[in-house]
Amino acid sequence: MKTAIVTDSTAYIPKELREKWNIHMIPLHVIFGNEVYQEEIDLTWSQFYEEVKTKELPTTSQPPIGQFVELFEQLSADHDAVICVHLSSGISGTYQGAVTASTMVEGIKVYPFDSEISCMVQGFYALEAAKMASRGEDADVIMNRLEGLKRSARAYFMVDDLSHLQRGGRLSSAQAFIGSLLQVKPLLHFENKVIVPFEKIRTRKRAMKRMVDLLAEDVSTGEAFQAVIIHANREEEAVEWRKELSAMYPKVEFSIGYFGPVIGTHLGEGSMGMGWMKKY
């Protein structure tokens, strides 16, 4: 069985890695007024953070179902199956779009996978699936591996300005108001597929230290882990943090990712996060 791997743009997998492992990408959209951009195609993360300095905060939208159908039909020419790895269904309808599209194509079996997370931790799932597919592994075997990885997948992040999350409906007005009033830098995470506060922390420095403590707890078993530092237009800070963490945890493979246009719209510039999962 030949299996294709698809993910959406919010996995933020670098283009060279997507090409190396033959991962197909469906872009989400960022909308500034009447201008619609395909994330990661028409608009990079660095361009996005420049745009929002002079324009009103954009809105975002999931890919049209027809885009999924078209891609699945193309892949059916030389694949028996396709595994689609998508951002959490609790914050976007993208996963459901793939499910709906899967009922509209013939000649290929579609396996939608809800990562229940986003950014490069979502990307870890897609990369693992692609590596297994390149070895000729069966789609059911790959899906079982992905489900198993969920047990070790974690992601924590902090935002500089709670108003973005509140405006996008990802955080209540009361939580945003109280947080801003107290100068709180809440540590957030995904729980039951949605973004919720994990702990309330007063400063950025303490929030980042808490993420490191949480990583330390998980990697203390000595098993192989991969981790990603995720930034919203704070690349230099991310690079320094990776140097520091690589020295502290030499057995963990650290990479640097970013909050791209769609996720950055809801979190805002200056956000920092870290995610990890076990590595096979």
TrEMBL record:
Xref: Gene3D superfamilies: 3.30.1180.10, 3.40.50.10170
This protein's UniProt keywords? Lipid-binding
* One Pfam family hit: DegV
What InterPro entries does this protein map onto? DegV, DegV_C, DegV_domain_contain
N-terminal signal peptide: none
| SUPFAM superfamilies assigned to the protein according to its UniProt record, in alphabetical order | DAK1/DegV-like
- The residue ranges crossing the membrane are none
Any one GO molecular-function label of the UniProt entry: lipid binding
- Name the PANTHER family on file: DEGV DOMAIN-CONTAINING PROTEIN DR_1986-RELATED (PTHR33434), FATTY ACID-BINDING PROTEIN TM_1468 (PTHR33434:SF2)
Name under which the protein is recorded: DegV family protein
